[in-house]
Amino acid sequence: MRAVAAGIAALVLFALAVTSAGAAPTEVRVRIEGNTKTLFEGPILTEGHDVRAASDVASRPCDGTNNGAHSQPSATPTAASVDAMAIVGEDFDGEWYSGYDDYFITRWGPDHESGSAFWGVLVNGAFTSVGGCQFAAQAGDEVLWAFDAFGSRPFLRLASAADSSPMPGPALPTATVEEDEPLALSVKSSTGAMDGAPESIQPVDSALVAPVLTDAQSGYQEVQVGDPSTVATAADGTVSVSFPTPGWYRLKAAKSGYVRSNRLDVCVEPGGGGSCGPLPADAQVRTPPPQPSSPESQPPSGHAAATSGPGVGPTPPPLSSFSFGRVVSNAKSGAALLTISVPGPGRLTVSGSKVKRSSVWVGGAGDVRLRVKTKGKALERLRRNGRVTVAVKVSFSPAGGAATTAQRKVVLKLGETAG
């Protein structure tokens, strides 16, 4: 009996080992809504893994165990989206915060954050309460990264009227109808409330349901609101569409002041039965290209490799090492050229309540000229009086190290030459 028990135990341990070693990647639906286009939308196979921002000096863990959020690794919104962008040949950028053990995303593909428009992440229609490397994504989840996610813009959802999927979760990605037959659609909005907070779900009137043009090279998708087939929803958020010929059609909903909707792929079958053809390739489950085996061995040009793990590196420079040169301003744009002395490689960021945020990677020690813009009433005073005083906050994150900041008042004068 002891031998039998030992044999069973060994078989169980072996089975567990095989299951763990051969665990399949997770299927997650990724949608990245950029400034004017959808940068990616579709299901992929993904798993948690190290990721590396374009301006970072090393790879960072991104598997749900970050900051002790979970004990076991899993797929994550950030790693899944890095995989998605890799499929279309694009990368991302972000700032690594060792205190959170996570990235603050600043760019997906071509779309970089601006002074007032930042990237935000939602899973199944709700903002995540932890970072994109800490959240454990499950099979079937929809990960949405949205540009200007915090601009008080509700999120649109386009669905077949027959789709009973609960909001704010994702709609079914496809619908089927026969040619020349009406397909009833519904457009509603949600606010992305997190952690079970009350959600406001509303029908959206005058939303434009339009065809989607997919760029053959980049894979980016753009809503063609000027197309003659575009229709607007009624007061209850509903609308009907029909298609004259069989095949696959793509629709999205858009409205000013809202984040554009998910894509609905419509299978239009021939009258009396038949097929609409195979599902479009970019709507099928895709697998990302292999991750680089040793990204730390090839840091970006001008970067120094981290020596002590994420967020650990050289001692931050003293605040006195920052100095400001003279500035030159432009009356029309309020642009100013600010000269800042930095002690070495790292990320330099300028911000303030009266200036737009600007950030740049610096390859080494020396003077850096960074173009910043005044905004709001400060810009009005600059145009009216020819000068304005603004508080400028400079943050410098050395390669692999912690950030330090300095703040100075700078007088911007029209027509002054740079020193």
What does this structure look like?
- With 419 residues, this protein is mainly β.
- It contains 3 helices and 24 strands.
- The chain has helices at residues 2-21, 77-87, 376-385, and strands at 26-33, 38-46, 92-97, 102-108, 111-112, 120-123, 126-127, 142-146, 155-160, 174-178, 183-190, 202-203, 208-214, 221-223, 231-232, 238-241, 247-254, 264-269, 335-342, 346-352, 355-362, 366-373, 387-398, 404-413.
- β20 (346-352) and β21 (355-362) form a beta hairpin.
- The protein is globular.
- The N and C termini lie far apart (88 Å).
- The model is unreliable at 1-23 and 294-320 (pLDDT under 50).
Task: Describe the structure using short key phrases.
419 residues; five-stranded mixed beta sheet; globular
Average per-residue pLDDT, rounded, comes to 82
- Taking all Cα atoms into account, the compactness measure Rg is 25 Å
Shape: globular
The biggest sheet amounts to:
6 strands, mixed
- Helix content estimate: under 10%
Tell how many strands the DSSP assignment holds.
24
Strand content: 35-45%
Q: What is the rounded distance between the termini? A: 88 Å
Low-confidence stretches: 1-23, 294-320
Count of individual helical segments: 3
Instruction: Label the structural class.
Output: mainly beta
Order of H and E elements: HEEHEEEEEEEEEEEEEEEEEEEEHEE
